[in-house]
């Protein structure tokens, strides 16, 4: 028989994993956007020299 407390802990940990994965996805998207903006700014600075 499965321990109901352990089962609840596993469910909570799985939910935490899901939330962390979603946070990672958002952070990666923000990093991508910031990197693109930095590349654009760098290119503009090079062109203005």
TrEMBL record:
Coiled-coil parts of chain: 3-44
UniProt-listed InterPro entries: Tropomyosin (IPR000533)
Signal found in the keyword field: no
Keywords: Coiled coil
Record-stated family: Belongs to the tropomyosin family.
Name of protein: Tropomyosin
Source organism: Trichinella nativa
